[in-house]
Design a protein that fits this description.
It contains 14 helices and 13 strands. By secondary structure, the chain is an alpha/beta fold. It folds into two domains: 3-154 and 244-284, D-Maltodextrin-Binding Protein, domain 2, CATH 3.40.190; 157-241 and 298-327, D-Maltodextrin-Binding Protein, domain 2. Strand 8, helix 8 and strand 9 (193-195) form a beta-alpha-beta unit.
């Protein structure tokens, strides 16, 4: 998934929640202005600066009665370069996907959501907020002088768009695919030519003319806005590698430590609220998109064969073990904690969510009349 697309579509959130708890005069006396790299403004105009601002940051401005003011970083920076800009102090913070910071440390993939065959968002948040995940993420951030918050859910990222149906693991061999990161690792292990071709030409055109076999992007709603559905006949909405990915609002730690305790509390609380709101939005948007694919575009909605998914699972475990856990002792500690909770919560999810979804499909009538 290409995070800048989502930055331009940051969620609208009701400003009523939590505002009554803010002491406006106290906040106003501690006004701070931040330059954030990774968003290019939005549909709103800041009440305090008159500049374009995305709606999540607008909510933060309102909640602090203008105590926190945000500006977009206006300099040029390379793809996935937000972290370095914030780390250097050239910007005060970033708004981007943590899983893009793998060059700094592989654990950023885990915390940012790129954990193949990992936990759902609901499960992940149980580990993150209540089993030590957030504390360990903060410990990792301190190593790089960064303080970050899970701020905007990206929804379930699907396996993607294919020009041919998949029948076996052999069908990936030698095929060019726009699949970067974790899923690219898995496809290359199967013999596929999987890379991030984003800067090498229009991917949709390559799918249409047959020079590209498949592409992973995000979820159907965002992908359809970019016309991915016009280049293929087969869509695989199963989730493999990004079930709990999100955008983070990260601050240079020196800047963060200059905030009042009340401002810091507001940033964390509103980030949590926006994470929930945007997860709901992606669910609604993607449900509508899937129906449109079926009813309006005659797309073949597919499932990977069982033996293919089993091989995906084996390679996922290999990736987590060799590419993340083996990095250092701290990485193993974090991965062990993640896996232990994954095993525990899978039992609960099976007897509740999984059974519920199965039972809901039983042949009974569910109408208002």
């Amino acid at each position: 998934m290409k995070r800048r697309e989502f930055v331009k579509n940051a969620a609208a959130v009701s400003g009523a929640v939590g505002l009554s708890a803010v002491s406006a005069p106290a906040i106003a006396q501690q006004r701070r202005e931040f330059t954030i790299v990774g968003f290019e403004g939005g549909d709103l105009t800041s009440t305090y600066t008159g500049e374009p601002i995305n709606e999540f940051l607008n909510w933060l401005e309102l909640a602090t009665n203008g105590g926190l003011i945000f500006h977009a970083y206006e300099g040029d920076y390379p793809e996935d370069g937000e972290y370095e800009i914030a780390l250097s102090g050239e910007a005060d913070g970033y708004f981007a996907g943590e899983y893009h910071w793998r060059p700094q440390h592989p654990l950023f993939e885990l915390f940012g959501g790129a954990m193949p065959m990992g936990m759902s968002m609901e499960e992940y948040l149980g580990w993150f907020y209540h089993r030590g995940g957030e504390r360990m993420w903060n410990e990792l951030g301190e190593r790089f002088n960064i303080k970050a918050f899970a701020a905007q859910a990206l929804g379930y990222q699907t396996i993607g768009w294919f020009t041919e149906a998949i029948e076996s693991v052999e069908d990936f061999r030698g095929k060019p695919m726009d699949m970067p990161g974790v899923i690219g690792y898995i496809m290359r292990a199967l013999g596929g030519d999987a890379e991030d071709y984003e800067l090498e030409g229009p991917i949709v055109d390559a799918l249409r003319d047959g020079t590209m076999f498949a592409a992973e992007r995000s979820g159907p709603a965002r992908d359809m806005a970019d016309n991915y559905h016009t280049g293929v006949n087969y869509y695989y909405p199963e989730v493999l590698h990004e079930a709990h990915s999100f955008l983070a609002l990260g601050f240079n730690l020196d800047q963060w430590n200059g905030l009042t305790a009340e401002q810091q509390r507001i940033v964390r609380d509103i980030s949590m609220a926006n994470l929930s709101y945007t997860m709901a939005r992606t669910t609604a948007d993607n449900a509508a998109a899937l129906r449109a694919l079926r009813e309006e575009h005659d797309m073949q909605i597919m499932r990977m064969p069982r033996q293919v998914m089993l091989r995906f699972g084996e390679l996922s475990a290999q990736y987590v073990r060799e590419e993340i856990a083996a990095t250092d002792d701290f990485s193993k500690q974090v991965v062990d904690s993640y896996i232990a909770y994954r095993e525990e919560v899978m039992d609960w999810s099976e007897v509740t969510v999984e059974y519920y979804l199965q039972n809901r499909r039983l042949p009974f009538t569910y109408t208002s009349s």
